[in-house]
Amino acid sequence: MANSEYGYVRGFEENDALPPSNWIVVRIDGRGFSKLCKKYNFDKPNDRRALNLMNAAAAEVVRSFVDVVLAYGQSDEYSFVFHESAGLFERRAAKLATSVATAFTAEYCMQWSTFFPDAPLSRPYPTFDGRCVCYPKRRILRDYLSWRQVDCHINNLYNTTFWNMVLRGGMSATEAEQALKGTVSSDKNEMLFSRFGINYNSEPEAFRKGTVVYRSYSESEHLNGSLTAENIGDKASVSASKTQLEKDRKRKQKAQIVVDHPDIIGDAFWTAHPYILASKRGQDYGE
């Protein structure tokens, strides 16, 4: 950037670099999606086309940002987890949030016609905002992801019960809201089964658990591509480390992007995919 008498204005820019050694979550949310759902007549309580579009857009964002180790989505939101060692944009919050949100918005709009071929987009177009949150420990990061999956379950159970009462039970929206006021999960499960013959546990996992997007590697690919403490520490290894980082970047770009609906609250998923939250220095992923 050229120097001039006006260069002093750069001093007004805020330093928003996020702290090092923290896992960064960029969460994007759809803006005005209640109106969008009505405009394009989304199916209630879940529109499979809309969810598949969200997942397709998320998969491309994960593919584009190699520092993203995992993404979790439900409804009109997605959380993209950047590795604790990520250095993209010097970890500047505004650049990370805007880059992910604009990339997701572009993919969502560009892929719309694939999932809604009979409903062309028109203004106002769908957009997503984004924010960054840092989590200093893997345990706290996992608690965050568990929180989002629990939220998915709570919201979906309520919406499934509510819309069945309205669409199949003949209730008005106000009557359904009143009927559900003060109910707990077991009450809603009983309502669904006794009134509509729906076993909630048999509903699609994508609706009940949300969606996880991650890279899949074979064991040999993971071991061969990982940085270890031995090849990072001294000056003589700097060149080799840079070469390894470039290989790691290319390996991630070629990796298979998996879109699945597992339970991420328990340990089974993380035990089966330890590399997702593994340290670049080979430390235990469970810290």
From TrEMBL:
The UniProt catalytic activity note for this protein reads: a 5'-end ribonucleotide-tRNA(His) + GTP + ATP + H2O = a 5'-end phospho-guanosine-ribonucleotide-tRNA(His) + AMP + 2 diphosphate + H(+)
Q: Which InterPro entries match?
A: Thg1_C_dom, tRNAHis_GuaTrfase_cat, tRNAHis_GuaTrfase_Thg1, tRNAHis_GuaTrfase_Thg1_sf
Q: Which residues bind Mg(2+) 2?
A: 29, 76
Name the EC number(s): 2.7.7.79
List, separated by semicolons, the cofactors it needs: Mg(2+)
Per the database record, which ranges form the Thg1 C-terminal domain? 140-265
Q: Which residues bind Mg(2+) 1?
A: 29-30, 76
User: If you read the UniProt record, what top EC class would you report for this enzyme, in one word?
Assistant: transferase
Family of the protein in this entry: Belongs to the tRNA(His) guanylyltransferase family.
Identification of the protein by name: tRNA(His) guanylyltransferase
What organism, scientifically named, is this protein from?
Friedmanniomyces endolithicus
